[in-house]
Amino acid sequence: MPLNTNVRIKWLVAGILFAAFWASAATATKIGLRVAQPLVIAEMRFGLAALIMLIIAHVIKAHRLPAGKEWKQIAIYGLLNITIYLGCYVIAMKTLTAGIGSLAIATNPVFISFFSVILLRKRLTWAVIAALIVCTAGVLTAAWPLFAGAEITTGGLLLLLFSMLCYSLGAIYFSSLKWNDLSLFTINGWQTFLGGLFLLPATLFYYEDSSNHFTSTFWWSVAWLAIPVSIIAVQLWLWLLQTNAVRAGLWLFLCPLFGYVFAAWWMNDEISTYTITGVILVIGGLLLSKLKTGKQEIVLE
């Protein structure tokens, strides 16, 4: 059904804001890492985001609490989507550039499509296989010149890849469950809270007081990651999915572009021929992954 004019305008604004906010996560993380340890930034981000979402869900909107097996579902989802994925991601960003982080995030839909073949028994297409190869080649191409200058490490890149795989598993797990009438704010709020709680022992074990400086830079980074990224971007994405699930995924193609713009603007990351080639390959891979997908979409959280 064609979108009317008002919805088209809202669609355009929501899509651009989503892509910009989602892509800004890598740069905001790198800024925070200047003054604090990765897991400390992650814990403060999760705590703030969870607090805001749970107040909205249960105090302002008076949504019900999870019940019975819903707590188990939320705990598992939080473990995959928050504890492992974002925990590993923020650690990996210690040895990666913001641009590479944004580029890798944009490949998530392709990994989700691949794992949906294995776990949800969906049909494996040549488009998905080609997309995986092309997107991987794109990330490696953009990263290649950075190895020589020690701007990124092999270990960091592998940890980033592992975090993307865990995210994909979490998204598939989420999409395979029945959540009944449980609100999205309730699900996101509690999975963020529990995911941060599961990560707390590791955060405390590796905590070094001298490595953490709770300056305005730290709080700016945490606030940006919690509100525009963890809350606003996710809600915009869900609205896009509800409006037109097939077309919503197209906004992910803007993420690498916004990611490198933010990295160059805020972090002075160099945009080279390798960078441009890598971005083109990733966007091409994402386009390939959309071929012959029909109406099958995986929800991004």
Radius of gyration: 19 Å
Poorly predicted runs are 293-301
**Helical percentage:** over 70%
Q: Main sheet?
A: none
Give helix and strand order, one letter per element, not per position.
Answer: HHHHHHHHHHHHH
The chain-level structural class is mainly alpha
Q: What's the pLDDT, averaged over the residues?
A: 82
Number of strands: 0
Strand content: under 5%
Shape: globular
First-residue to last-residue Cα separation: 25 Å
Explain what you see.
- This protein has 301 residues and is mainly alpha-helical.
- The chain has helices at residues 5-23, 25-32, 38-60, 69-92, 98-105, 108-119, 126-148, 154-176, 184-205, 216-243, 245-248, 255-266, 273-289.
- Helix 3 packs antiparallel against helix 4 (69-92).
- The protein is globular and about 50 Å long.
- The two termini are 25 Å apart.
- Mean pLDDT is 82; it is low at 293-301.
Overview features:
disordered C terminus, 301 residues, 0% strand, mainly alpha
Gist?
The protein has 301 residues and is mostly helical. It is built from 13 helices and no strands.
